Amino acid sequence: MIATVGIIGGGAWGTALAVAAASAGREVILWARDPDTVTAINRTHENTRHLLGIRLDPAITATTDLAAVARADLPVMAVPAQAMRAVVGEVGPLLRDGTPLLLTAKGLERETAKRMSVVVAEVAPHVVPAILSGPSFAADVASGLPTAVTIAAAEPDLALALCRAFAGPTFRPYAESDMIGVEIGGAIKNVLAIAAGIVVGRHLGASALAALMARGFAELRRLGEAIGARPETMMGLSGLGDLVLTCSGSQSRNFAYGETIGAGGSRSGDRLVEGIATAFVARDLARANGVEAPIIAAVAAILDGSLSIDAAIEGLLARPIRQEAG
Fold this sequence. Notes:
The chain is of the alpha/beta class. The chain has 2 domains: about 5-175, Rossmann fold (3-Layer(aba) Sandwich), CATH 3.40.50; about 185-315, Orthogonal Bundle (N-(1-d-carboxylethyl)-l-norvaline Dehydrogenase, domain 2), CATH 1.10.1040. Helix content is about 50%, strand content about 10%. The protein has helices spanning about 10-25, 35-45, 65-70, 85-90, 115-125, 140, 155-165, 180-200, 205-225, 230-235, 235-245, 255-260, 275-290, 295-305, 310-315, and strands spanning about 5-10, 25-30, 60-65, 75, 100-105, 130-135, 145-155, 170-175. An 8-stranded mixed beta sheet has the order 3-2-1-4-5-6-7-8, sandwiched between helices. Strand 2, helix 2 and strand 3 form a beta-alpha-beta unit. Helix 4 (about 85-90) packs parallel to helix 5 (about 115-125) and helix 8 packs parallel to helix 11. The model has no long low-confidence stretch (mean pLDDT about 95).
């Protein structure tokens, strides 16, 4: 029985998951490095830095004490992908053997090209990683708007138990055992969201955006299957569902970043734009596995400055005519 949930990460997504867990009847403790965030949550029941205007359940308590959060029945890692190894290195020694550790970052480690569950297995092999992914904006979840996600674990019974821990009136998790598919879907859709944002920022039209999403999903599916994902997972919430949401507007940091550079703005981005680092990893994974992924490759080339947006568009449209399937 999971009675307590400890959220590691006091950003918008960590706070939203704290709201979801509290709505499901769990006792929730939220860890943040920033003492001001902790003070605001405990005194005003609001994360004034990341979710301004959304009142939190007074039962949610915040702390800067990592050990206190690690004692929860279910610790949840709500930190960016590129910070996962370092933060798990901090919390890992505090976790009991066999503790499930729910990961929510949607990205691949840039230096190693590894999925988050693999990173955790290396840093803290005594815990049991699981993944939460799917179409979910933090503000929607925190506001109690209907949301469905996927929770994946290698053991189906664990996946179901984690779903029950988070299931509430407006938050619906579905269990899955295909961890590769769930992780790859969540990571690669961020790269495609940057591409979608570029299309919108460049005012290329709704037809171009629809084509980009459809052909981008074909690349996501091909790459996922090449490294062991199940096709049906790619068609689910953590694949197609998350892609549709993330390409739909500027609530997505990845889309907003793409929209900015599509309009001629700066290519510099913060660590919360997971698709930046993942673009290069995904491009290299596709090449290594013989997977054709021209949109992913174009995004990586635009981001490293080796290809202009106009040249990328011209190159994609000039590709040889072929059958659509595949």
